[in-house]
Write a structure and sequence with these properties.
The chain is an alpha/beta fold. It has 13 helices and nine strands. Strands 1, 2, 3, 4, 5, 6, 7, 8 and 9 form a nine-stranded mixed beta sheet that branches. Helix 6 (about 115-125) packs across helix 7 (about 180-190).
Length: about 400
C-alpha cells in the first residue's frame, strides 16, 4: 500500500491535484527494453539529485502517469509500483535468459516461437496478485494491449474516474480495476508469432458465465510507441483525467528501445515470396505508425533544441510548425539508432554494420549487455537536466 509517511504524493494527488503534469511513455521492443532502462537509470539519477538526493526517490514520485507497450508495459508497471530502475534491470537480465529460451520441440509456423509459462512465472513473481486497482500503484499507469478478437486497441489504466474502471449500472462488463496486473502486462507482451495470445474475462453473459477476449501485444496497434495514446488519455474528456494542455502544463517524456532498418534493393523485394512480402509490409507498417506518432508529438510539442531530430528531409524538425499558433505540451524523445554508422559516429563505438544490425533483434538474450551499454552511452550524450524544466518541479510533494 501507499506509505502514508512518505513525503511524496498519493495516487489520487498525482491524478487529480492541480498543477503541472508529467507523463512517461515507454516503447515496445522485446529484450531491447534493457536499452530503455539505461536511459531511465540516467533519468532517475538526474531527478533524484534535483530533489535532494533522497535514496528513496523513484520515478513514480516525479511522473503522474507512466505507460508502456509490450516490454515497455513491464517497465511501466514496475515503475508505477515504486521499483527502482536497478531492480528492473536485474529483472530484465533474468527475463531475457528464461523467456527467450526456445525449446527444441517448438519449430515451424504452427506454434508460437516461445512458451508462455516462463514469462507468466516471472510476472506473477514480480506483481503477485495485485490488480489494476491496487493501492500499491503509486502513480498513474497505462498498459497498452490489443483485443484481437474484436480488433480494438485497449489502453488499460488505473484512473478511478475512467468509464470502465469501476462497475457500471446495468452493464455486463467486468470492471477494469479487477484485472490482474501480471495478466494485462502478459497480454501487452503477447507478440504474435512469439507468444500465444492472453485470454482475459471481460464480461458476463445472461446466464452469468464469463465472456472472454483474446489479447495480443499492444505493438500491433498504432501505439507500439504509446506517446500519442498517453497524450489522449491525459487530455481527452472521455478518459476522465482532463489535464490542461500547454507547454507549461504538460511534459511528456518518450523513451524508445532502439530503432533502425536495413534498406533493400528493389530487385530483392521483387524476388520475395508472397509470404516474405507480407511480413516485410507488416513490419514496415509498425515503423510507419511509430514515425507518425513521433511526427504528431513533435508537431504538437515544444521540444528542447538539443533533441529536435529531423523527421525527414522534407518537413525537418517541425520547430516552426504549430497547431493553432502554439505548442500544446513540452515533449522530449530519447532513442538510439541501431545502425553501424550511427553507433560509430554518435557513440564512437567500434562496431560493424552486421553486429549493429544483430542488435535490432527482439529475442536474442546475448544482446542484453551490449544494448545496455548502448543505452547508457546514448543517455550520456542525449539527456540533460534542462530537458525537465523547473516549472514541472512544482507539486512533487504532498500538500
Amino acid at each position: 500500500m501507499n506509505d502514508i509517511t512518505s513525503p511524496y504524493r498519493t495516487l489520487d494527488q498525482h491524478l487529480f491535484d492541480k498543477g503541472p503534469k508529467r507523463v512517461l511513455a515507454l516503447d515496445g521492443g522485446g529484450v531491447r527494453g534493457i536499452l530503455t532502462l539505461s536511459y531511465l537509470e540516467k533519468m532517475e539519477s538526474i531527478l533524484r539529485a534535483r530533489h535532494g538526493g533522497d535514496p528513496d526517490f523513484r520515478l513514480c514520485h516525479y511522473f503522474d502517469l507512466i505507460g508502456g507497450t509490450s516490454t515497455g508495459s513491464i517497465i511501466a508497471a514496475g515503475l508505477a509500483l515504486g521499483f527502482p530502475v536497478s531492480k528492473l534491470k536485474e529483472l530484465y537480465r533474468a527475463l531475457a535468459e528464461s523467456v527467450f529460451d526456445k525449446p527444441p520441440y517448438r519449430f515451424g509456423v504452427l506454434v508460437p516461437k516461445f512458451g508462455q509459462q516462463p514469462l507468466i512465472d516471472a510476472l506473477q513473481n514480480q506483481f503477485g496478485d495485485r490488480s489494476l486497482g491496487t493501492e500499491d500503484l503509486r502513480t498513474g499507469l497505462m498498459v497498452m494491449t490489443k483485443r484481437l478478437d474484436t480488433g480494438s486497441p485497449w489502453p488499460l489504466h488505473n484512473n478511478p474516474r475512467g468509464r470502465y474502471f469501476n462497475e457500471r449500472p446495468n452493464s455486463a462488463a467486468l470492471a477494469n480495476r479487477h484485472f490482474l496486473l501480471w495478466q494485462i502486462v502478459r497480454a501487452s507482451t503477447a507478440a504474435p508469432h512469439y507468444f500465444q495470445p492472453e485470454r482475459l474475462s471481460v464480461a458476463t453473459d445472461n446466464d452469468g458465465r464469463y465472456v472472454d477476449g483474446a489479447f495480443v501485444d499492444g505493438g500491433v496497434s498504432p501505439s507500439n510507441n504509446p506517446s500519442l495514446q498517453l497524450l489522449m488519455l491525459a487530455a481527452l474528456e472521455g478518459f476522465g483525467l482532463k489535464w490542461p494542455l500547454g507547454a507549461d502544463n504538460l511534459l511528456l517524456v518518450s523513451v524508445g528501445t532502439g530503432d533502425g532498418d536495413e534498406a533493400l534493393a528493389a530487385d530483392q523485394v521483387m524476388k520475395m515470396t508472397a509470404a516474405e512480402t507480407a511480413l516485410r509490409a507488416l513490419a514496415a507498417l509498425m515503423t510507419d505508425c511509430d514515425a507518425l506518432v513521433r511526427t504528431m508529438m513533435q508537431w504538437l510539442g515544444e521540444t528542447p533544441v538539443s533533441r529536435r531530430d529531423a523527421i525527414d528531409r522534407e518537413i525537418g524538425d517541425l520547430a516552426g510548425d504549430t497547431v493553432g499558433g502554439k505548442k500544446w505540451l513540452s515533449y522530449v524523445r530519447y532513442n538510439a539508432t541501431l545502425e553501424g554508422r550511427w553507433l560509430r559516429d554518435r557513440l564512437e563505438l567500434d562496431i560493424t554494420d552486421g553486429d549493429a544490425a544483430s542488435l535490432r533483434a527482439m529475442d536474442v538474450p546475448s544482446n542484453v549487455e551490449m544494448l545496455g551499454r548502448v543505452g547508457a552511452m546514448a543517455a550520456e550524450k542525449q539527456m540533460a537536466g534542462d530537458h525537465f524544466p523547473a516549472t514541472f518541479d512544482l507539486n512533487l510533494a504532498k500538500a
